[in-house]
Each structure stands twice: as C-alpha cells, then as structure tokens.
C-alpha cells in the first residue's frame, strides 16, 4: 500500500489515518473518516457513538493499527464495528510491522449474528 511504502512502519496511528484519507481522496475512493455510528441498547439510543476509523464505499469498515502485531482484541474491535454498523466486510490494517499486514473479515448478520471470520 502506498501509505506504508512512503511513510514506513513505526509512526503514530494518527499519521497513518491522515495519510490514508489523502490516499483515498486521490484515488477517488468514497469514504468517511471516523463515522459516528449510533448504538442502541434495548429500545434506547445511547448518547455515545461507536467510531470506527473509516467507512469506504459505504460498505467496508476499515480499522487502522500501528503496533508490533495484531491481536485478538484488534480483531474483536473490527467485529464490533461490523456488528454495530450493519456492514458485512471489514479490513484490519497494521502499519506497525516492517511489511504491511492486513486481515479481511466477512460478517454474516443473518445466519449467525456472532460469526465473523478472517478470510
């Protein structure tokens, strides 16, 4: 990915956010940076929002990390983003390693609301 090639690993996550937003814009990829997703509890709308890093093409939730390795907690964060957003596809991208690493997740809300798998 262009952002990792130019900036390299080991910077603050916020810098990768900003660079990726520029890259999405230059490539004419429709996106929202840090969309505010409404969360419901029973019949109540919570006052706080859930905020993933990006929503691209109004369909793909993108979570950015800049750490030594991805963890199960990072994966759970993406699964929660998919569940709350109602979207089915997510990307977990880690700029912290020497080579860019990423995982694609597909979430099936209809068959099994607890299921998500890395593909």
Compile the SSE list and pairings.
Elements: H1 2-7, H2 13-26, E1 31-33, E2 37-41, E3 44-50, E4 54-56, E5 60-65, H3 72-85, E6 89-94, E7 101-107, E8 116-118
What does this structure look like?
- The chain is of the alpha+beta class.
- It has one domain: Lambda Exonuclease, Chain A (Alpha-Beta Complex).
- The protein is 29% helix and 34% strand.
- The chain is built from 3 helices and 8 strands.
- It has helices spanning 2-7, 13-26, 72-85; strands spanning 31-33, 37-41, 44-50, 54-56, 60-65, 89-94, 101-107, 116-118.
- Strands 1-4-5-6-7-8 form a 6-stranded mixed β-sheet, with helices on both faces.
- The longest helix has 14 residues, at 13-26.
- It starts with a helix and ends with a strand.
- The model has no long low-confidence stretch (mean pLDDT 92).
> What is the total number of structural domains?
1
Q: Quaternary arrangement of the chains shown?
A: single chain
Q: Provide the CATH topology.
A: Lambda Exonuclease, Chain A
Query: Distance N terminus to C terminus?
Result: 19 Å
Q: Which radius of gyration do the C-alpha atoms yield?
A: 15 Å
CATH class: Alpha Beta
Rounded mean pLDDT score: 92
- Give the H and E element order: HHEEEEEHEEE
CATH-scheme architecture: Alpha-Beta Complex
Which term fits the overall shape? globular
Helix content: 25-40%
Strand content: 25-35%
What order do the strands of the largest sheet run in, or round the barrel if closed? 1-4-5-6-7-8
Alpha plus pi helix count: 3
Low-confidence stretches: none
Number of strands: 8
Helix and strand composition category? alpha+beta
Main beta sheet strand tally, sense and closure:
6 strands, mixed
